[in-house]
Design a protein that fits this description.
The structure is a single chain. The protein has 321 residues and is of the alpha/beta class. It is built from 13 helices and ten strands. Helix 7 packs across helix 8, helix 8 packs across helix 12 and helix 10 packs parallel to helix 11. The longest helix has 24 residues. About 7% of the residues have low confidence.
Length: 321
Protein backbone atom coordinates (compact mmCIF):
# COMPACT_ATOMS: atom_id res chain seq x y z
CA UNK A 1 0.00 0.00 0.00
CA UNK A 2 1.27 3.51 -0.80
CA UNK A 3 1.72 6.22 1.83
CA UNK A 4 -1.73 7.73 2.57
CA UNK A 5 -2.41 11.35 1.68
CA UNK A 6 -2.94 13.56 4.71
CA UNK A 7 -6.65 13.83 3.77
CA UNK A 8 -6.91 10.05 4.25
CA UNK A 9 -5.34 10.24 7.72
CA UNK A 10 -8.10 12.32 9.28
CA UNK A 11 -10.68 9.73 10.33
CA UNK A 12 -8.04 7.27 11.65
CA UNK A 13 -6.46 10.08 13.68
CA UNK A 14 -9.81 11.01 15.26
CA UNK A 15 -10.44 7.38 16.13
CA UNK A 16 -7.09 7.21 17.90
CA UNK A 17 -8.02 10.29 19.93
CA UNK A 18 -11.52 9.13 20.88
CA UNK A 19 -10.26 8.14 24.36
CA UNK A 20 -10.04 11.85 25.18
CA UNK A 21 -6.40 11.63 26.24
CA UNK A 22 -3.70 14.11 25.22
CA UNK A 23 -1.48 12.64 22.49
CA UNK A 24 2.01 13.75 21.58
CA UNK A 25 2.53 14.21 17.84
CA UNK A 26 5.15 11.46 17.64
CA UNK A 27 2.73 8.94 19.24
CA UNK A 28 0.53 8.80 16.12
CA UNK A 29 3.13 7.31 13.80
CA UNK A 30 3.23 3.66 14.87
CA UNK A 31 -0.57 3.17 15.21
CA UNK A 32 -1.11 4.69 11.76
CA UNK A 33 1.61 2.51 10.23
CA UNK A 34 -0.27 -0.52 11.55
CA UNK A 35 -3.67 0.83 10.47
CA UNK A 36 -2.57 1.31 6.86
CA UNK A 37 -0.40 -1.85 6.83
CA UNK A 38 2.62 0.12 5.64
CA UNK A 39 5.91 -1.64 5.06
CA UNK A 40 9.06 -0.55 6.84
CA UNK A 41 10.29 0.98 3.58
CA UNK A 42 7.08 2.97 3.08
CA UNK A 43 7.08 4.22 6.67
CA UNK A 44 10.69 5.40 6.37
CA UNK A 45 10.41 6.93 2.89
CA UNK A 46 11.80 10.48 2.72
CA UNK A 47 11.20 13.39 0.38
CA UNK A 48 13.63 13.61 -2.51
CA UNK A 49 15.06 16.76 -0.94
CA UNK A 50 15.96 14.76 2.18
CA UNK A 51 13.90 17.10 4.36
CA UNK A 52 12.07 14.60 6.51
CA UNK A 53 9.86 11.51 6.42
CA UNK A 54 6.82 11.75 4.16
CA UNK A 55 4.42 9.92 6.50
CA UNK A 56 5.47 11.91 9.57
CA UNK A 57 5.08 15.17 7.65
CA UNK A 58 1.60 14.23 6.44
CA UNK A 59 0.52 13.27 9.96
CA UNK A 60 1.79 16.64 11.16
CA UNK A 61 -0.24 18.48 8.52
CA UNK A 62 -3.40 16.50 9.25
CA UNK A 63 -3.06 17.43 12.94
CA UNK A 64 -2.32 21.06 12.12
CA UNK A 65 -5.44 21.38 9.96
CA UNK A 66 -7.52 19.83 12.73
CA UNK A 67 -6.16 22.40 15.18
CA UNK A 68 -6.68 25.29 12.76
CA UNK A 69 -10.31 24.32 12.14
CA UNK A 70 -11.19 23.66 15.78
CA UNK A 71 -11.64 19.89 15.63
CA UNK A 72 -8.72 19.29 17.99
CA UNK A 73 -7.33 21.31 20.89
CA UNK A 74 -3.61 21.90 21.19
CA UNK A 75 -2.90 22.14 24.95
CA UNK A 76 0.73 22.93 24.18
CA UNK A 77 3.10 22.74 21.25
CA UNK A 78 3.19 19.25 19.73
CA UNK A 79 0.29 17.83 21.80
CA UNK A 80 -3.30 17.24 20.67
CA UNK A 81 -6.64 16.34 22.27
CA UNK A 82 -10.08 15.76 20.81
CA UNK A 83 -12.84 18.21 21.81
CA UNK A 84 -16.63 18.15 21.51
CA UNK A 85 -16.53 19.27 17.88
CA UNK A 86 -14.05 16.52 17.07
CA UNK A 87 -16.16 13.90 18.83
CA UNK A 88 -19.12 14.90 16.66
CA UNK A 89 -17.16 13.65 13.62
CA UNK A 90 -16.32 10.22 15.03
CA UNK A 91 -19.38 8.67 13.40
CA UNK A 92 -18.94 10.45 10.09
CA UNK A 93 -17.03 9.42 7.00
CA UNK A 94 -13.54 10.56 6.11
CA UNK A 95 -15.04 12.45 3.15
CA UNK A 96 -17.45 14.35 5.44
CA UNK A 97 -14.49 15.34 7.63
CA UNK A 98 -12.49 16.49 4.59
CA UNK A 99 -15.36 18.65 3.34
CA UNK A 100 -15.68 20.34 6.73
CA UNK A 101 -11.94 20.97 7.07
CA UNK A 102 -11.65 22.41 3.55
CA UNK A 103 -14.66 24.66 4.11
CA UNK A 104 -13.34 25.95 7.42
CA UNK A 105 -9.90 26.59 5.95
CA UNK A 106 -11.54 28.60 3.16
CA UNK A 107 -13.43 30.67 5.75
CA UNK A 108 -10.35 31.63 7.72
CA UNK A 109 -9.88 35.34 7.40
CA UNK A 110 -6.31 36.51 7.85
CA UNK A 111 -5.30 40.15 7.61
CA UNK A 112 -2.58 40.50 5.00
CA UNK A 113 -0.50 43.38 3.71
CA UNK A 114 -1.81 44.86 0.47
CA UNK A 115 1.01 43.43 -1.63
CA UNK A 116 -0.09 39.83 -0.96
CA UNK A 117 -3.86 40.20 -1.18
CA UNK A 118 -3.76 38.34 -4.48
CA UNK A 119 -1.94 35.43 -2.84
CA UNK A 120 -4.58 35.34 -0.09
CA UNK A 121 -7.28 35.00 -2.71
CA UNK A 122 -5.39 32.24 -4.47
CA UNK A 123 -4.96 30.37 -1.17
CA UNK A 124 -8.67 30.47 -0.39
CA UNK A 125 -9.71 29.44 -3.88
CA UNK A 126 -7.20 26.63 -4.08
CA UNK A 127 -8.90 24.88 -1.17
CA UNK A 128 -11.87 24.05 -3.38
CA UNK A 129 -10.31 23.76 -6.82
CA UNK A 130 -7.03 22.91 -8.47
CA UNK A 131 -7.17 25.24 -11.46
CA UNK A 132 -4.30 27.48 -10.40
CA UNK A 133 -0.88 27.53 -12.00
CA UNK A 134 1.95 25.62 -10.29
CA UNK A 135 3.41 28.93 -9.12
CA UNK A 136 0.10 30.04 -7.63
CA UNK A 137 -0.21 26.70 -5.85
CA UNK A 138 3.30 27.17 -4.48
CA UNK A 139 2.42 30.61 -3.11
CA UNK A 140 -0.78 29.22 -1.60
CA UNK A 141 1.14 26.42 0.12
CA UNK A 142 3.67 28.92 1.45
CA UNK A 143 0.92 31.02 3.01
CA UNK A 144 -0.62 27.97 4.67
CA UNK A 145 2.73 26.87 6.09
CA UNK A 146 3.46 30.35 7.38
CA UNK A 147 0.09 30.67 9.13
CA UNK A 148 0.65 27.31 10.78
CA UNK A 149 3.97 28.62 12.11
CA UNK A 150 2.22 31.76 13.40
CA UNK A 151 -0.21 29.60 15.37
CA UNK A 152 2.62 27.47 16.71
CA UNK A 153 4.50 30.60 17.83
CA UNK A 154 1.50 31.81 19.84
CA UNK A 155 0.85 28.37 21.32
CA UNK A 156 4.47 28.23 22.45
CA UNK A 157 4.38 31.72 23.98
CA UNK A 158 1.35 30.72 26.05
CA UNK A 159 3.39 27.94 27.69
CA UNK A 160 6.00 30.43 28.94
CA UNK A 161 5.94 32.66 32.04
CA UNK A 162 4.71 36.29 31.95
CA UNK A 163 8.23 37.57 32.69
CA UNK A 164 9.59 35.47 29.80
CA UNK A 165 6.98 37.07 27.52
CA UNK A 166 8.05 40.55 28.63
CA UNK A 167 11.67 39.73 27.80
CA UNK A 168 10.57 38.33 24.46
CA UNK A 169 8.75 41.49 23.37
CA UNK A 170 11.63 43.73 24.43
CA UNK A 171 14.01 41.58 22.39
CA UNK A 172 11.60 41.63 19.45
CA UNK A 173 11.39 45.43 19.36
CA UNK A 174 15.17 45.59 19.38
CA UNK A 175 15.25 43.07 16.52
CA UNK A 176 12.90 45.40 14.66
CA UNK A 177 15.45 48.20 14.96
CA UNK A 178 14.18 50.17 17.94
CA UNK A 179 17.02 51.28 20.14
CA UNK A 180 19.39 51.40 17.19
CA UNK A 181 23.02 51.21 18.18
CA UNK A 182 22.39 52.06 21.83
CA UNK A 183 24.10 49.45 24.00
CA UNK A 184 21.60 47.56 26.17
CA UNK A 185 18.81 49.75 24.82
CA UNK A 186 16.01 47.50 26.07
CA UNK A 187 15.12 46.44 29.57
CA UNK A 188 12.31 44.71 31.42
CA UNK A 189 10.93 46.74 34.31
CA UNK A 190 11.30 45.09 37.76
CA UNK A 191 8.14 43.03 38.23
CA UNK A 192 7.06 44.50 41.59
CA UNK A 193 7.73 48.14 40.68
CA UNK A 194 6.69 48.45 37.06
CA UNK A 195 3.87 50.97 37.63
CA UNK A 196 1.99 49.54 34.66
CA UNK A 197 5.08 49.59 32.43
CA UNK A 198 6.55 46.18 31.60
CA UNK A 199 9.57 47.31 29.60
CA UNK A 200 11.40 50.21 27.98
CA UNK A 201 13.45 50.83 24.85
CA UNK A 202 15.92 53.74 24.93
CA UNK A 203 16.07 55.38 21.51
CA UNK A 204 19.25 57.38 22.14
CA UNK A 205 22.35 57.25 24.33
CA UNK A 206 21.12 59.96 26.72
CA UNK A 207 17.72 58.37 27.12
CA UNK A 208 15.86 61.45 25.90
CA UNK A 209 13.61 59.27 23.78
CA UNK A 210 11.94 56.21 25.28
CA UNK A 211 9.36 53.67 24.14
CA UNK A 212 7.34 52.12 26.95
CA UNK A 213 5.95 48.62 26.63
CA UNK A 214 2.95 46.81 28.08
CA UNK A 215 2.80 43.04 27.48
CA UNK A 216 -0.24 40.88 28.16
CA UNK A 217 0.00 37.10 27.67
CA UNK A 218 -3.68 36.20 27.30
CA UNK A 219 -5.40 33.23 25.66
CA UNK A 220 -6.04 33.77 21.96
CA UNK A 221 -9.82 33.79 22.38
CA UNK A 222 -9.88 36.68 24.87
CA UNK A 223 -9.84 40.41 24.10
CA UNK A 224 -8.06 43.43 25.54
CA UNK A 225 -10.64 46.11 26.29
CA UNK A 226 -10.57 49.88 26.51
CA UNK A 227 -9.91 49.97 30.30
CA UNK A 228 -6.54 48.23 29.80
CA UNK A 229 -5.50 50.81 27.19
CA UNK A 230 -6.68 53.65 29.42
CA UNK A 231 -4.63 52.26 32.30
CA UNK A 232 -1.55 52.03 30.08
CA UNK A 233 -2.08 55.60 28.84
CA UNK A 234 -2.26 56.76 32.46
CA UNK A 235 0.97 54.94 33.25
CA UNK A 236 2.66 56.71 30.34
CA UNK A 237 1.52 60.13 31.55
CA UNK A 238 2.64 59.28 35.08
CA UNK A 239 6.13 58.62 33.72
CA UNK A 240 6.12 61.77 31.53
CA UNK A 241 6.19 59.56 28.42
CA UNK A 242 4.28 59.82 25.17
CA UNK A 243 5.27 56.68 23.24
CA UNK A 244 3.91 53.25 24.06
CA UNK A 245 3.49 49.81 22.53
CA UNK A 246 0.81 47.48 23.89
CA UNK A 247 1.49 43.88 22.86
CA UNK A 248 -0.76 40.89 23.48
CA UNK A 249 -1.09 37.29 22.38
CA UNK A 250 -4.86 37.77 22.05
CA UNK A 251 -6.73 40.60 20.31
CA UNK A 252 -8.08 44.09 20.98
CA UNK A 253 -11.73 45.06 21.19
CA UNK A 254 -13.10 47.69 18.80
CA UNK A 255 -13.39 50.18 21.70
CA UNK A 256 -9.76 49.63 22.66
CA UNK A 257 -8.59 50.25 19.09
CA UNK A 258 -10.70 53.41 18.76
CA UNK A 259 -9.47 54.76 22.08
CA UNK A 260 -5.81 54.22 21.17
CA UNK A 261 -6.29 55.87 17.77
CA UNK A 262 -7.90 58.99 19.28
CA UNK A 263 -5.35 59.72 22.01
CA UNK A 264 -4.04 63.27 21.75
CA UNK A 265 -1.33 63.36 24.42
CA UNK A 266 0.34 60.01 23.69
CA UNK A 267 0.93 57.62 20.81
CA UNK A 268 0.09 54.00 21.61
CA UNK A 269 0.66 51.28 19.01
CA UNK A 270 -1.39 48.10 19.44
CA UNK A 271 0.08 44.75 18.40
CA UNK A 272 -2.29 41.79 18.62
CA UNK A 273 -1.41 38.10 18.58
CA UNK A 274 -1.56 37.69 14.81
CA UNK A 275 0.67 40.71 14.20
CA UNK A 276 3.02 39.65 17.00
CA UNK A 277 3.51 36.22 15.39
CA UNK A 278 4.07 37.87 12.00
CA UNK A 279 6.79 40.12 13.43
CA UNK A 280 8.50 37.24 15.25
CA UNK A 281 8.51 35.27 12.01
CA UNK A 282 9.64 38.19 9.83
CA UNK A 283 12.49 39.29 12.09
CA UNK A 284 13.70 35.75 12.81
CA UNK A 285 13.29 35.68 16.58
CA UNK A 286 13.32 32.08 17.81
CA UNK A 287 12.73 30.63 14.34
CA UNK A 288 15.08 29.20 11.76
CA UNK A 289 14.97 28.48 8.06
CA UNK A 290 13.90 24.87 7.53
CA UNK A 291 14.16 24.73 3.75
CA UNK A 292 14.97 27.06 0.87
CA UNK A 293 13.44 26.43 -2.55
CA UNK A 294 15.16 28.09 -5.50
CA UNK A 295 12.97 28.62 -8.58
CA UNK A 296 14.76 29.72 -11.72
CA UNK A 297 13.60 31.02 -15.07
CA UNK A 298 15.41 31.62 -18.34
CA UNK A 299 17.56 34.73 -18.64
CA UNK A 300 16.01 36.10 -21.83
CA UNK A 301 18.86 38.58 -22.39
CA UNK A 302 21.39 35.74 -22.41
CA UNK A 303 19.42 33.52 -24.79
CA UNK A 304 18.43 36.40 -27.10
CA UNK A 305 22.11 37.16 -27.64
CA UNK A 306 22.71 33.68 -29.04
CA UNK A 307 22.08 33.47 -32.82
CA UNK A 308 18.92 31.66 -33.90
CA UNK A 309 18.93 28.87 -36.45
CA UNK A 310 16.87 30.28 -39.31
CA UNK A 311 15.70 26.79 -40.29
CA UNK A 312 14.09 26.28 -36.88
CA UNK A 313 12.18 29.56 -36.83
CA UNK A 314 8.83 28.85 -38.37
CA UNK A 315 5.47 30.55 -38.07
CA UNK A 316 2.81 28.33 -36.51
CA UNK A 317 0.21 31.06 -36.03
CA UNK A 318 -3.39 30.11 -36.79
CA UNK A 319 -6.57 32.11 -36.64
CA UNK A 320 -8.82 31.59 -33.64
CA UNK A 321 -11.71 31.25 -36.03
Amino acid sequence: MSIPHFDDLRKPILLLLKDGEVWKKSEFTEPLIKHFNLTKEEASEEYESGNGLILVDRISWALSYFALTGILDRPKRGYYQINDLGKSFLGKSNEDINIFVKRKMAERQIEKPAEIELIQGVRENSVNQNTNTPQEQLYASYETIRQETYDEILDTILTKTPIAFERLVVELLQKMGYGGAVEKAGRVTPYTKDGGIDGEIYEDVLGLGRIHIQAKRYNKGSAIGRPDIQSFAGALLGDNANKGVFITTSRFSADAITYAQNLSNARIVLIDGQKLAEYIYKYGLGVQIEQTISIKKLDTDYWDNLPDDSNSVQSNHTDIN
